[in-house]
Amino acid sequence: MATNDKYDRQLRLWGSAGQKSLSSTLVVLIGSSACGTESLKNLVLPGVGAFLILDDVVYGGDDNSSVAVDEIIMHDAGHVNDNGRDNGNNNAGSSCCFRFDKSADTANFFAGSSSSDDASTKASLACRLLCELNPDVSGFHRTVPSLERVEYASLLKELLSRPLDKNASSSSSSSFVPLNILVITADQPSAVFLPVSKACHSLNLPL
User: Fold this and answer.
1) Where would I find the beta strands (DSSP E) of the chain?
2) Residues 6 or more apart from 60 whose CB is under 8 A from it?
3) What is the pTM of this model?
4) Which pLDDT tens digit goes with each residue over 175-201?
5) Cα dihedral: 53, 54, 57, 58 (round 10)
6) What is the crossing angle of helices 190-203 and 152-161, to 10°?
7) What is the DSSP letter of 152?
């Protein structure tokens, strides 16, 4: 049977009660990585109530100190015989080096460079692009000096107790009072993930 309801597919899956629960949920994304924004996209499309992107990346400037380049050196041990000695392979002991930029967003469709977009922060750009996918969803973003210095327990308590419209920039003119909060963090170092995990555990929030 044809329907004009764009949420018809998931309504058939989890019913009106499940859709109502989804539409009253706030998703908090810690760090707008490729994996994180893709996960958030899969909640924006079926109609999550609202989302907040928290990040510390600001576009522009000549300071490249935040660019982290890792170097992996792979050693080829060659072929050894049963005595543990080299069997004559000339490649034994050789090594190759791979360098990659951990801050690169070549696979992130919701992030770009300052030269190609007017957004000044990674969070604001991802927020705007995600909101374009579903006008029913309210998008918010907040940029902090460092994700490692955020008091996550205080932040989550604040989100639970007051409408999300004062302390975060918004792509929507309306406020949002969440009944449920889901926290997503992906591709973040332990200095960020562990405090987030501890805060979610103390407040009994899913991570």
Assistant:
1) 25-30, 50-55, 69-75, 95-101, 138-143, 169-170, 180-185
2) 114, 120
3) 0.71
4) 677 788 999 998 899 999 999 999 999
5) 80
6) 40
7) H
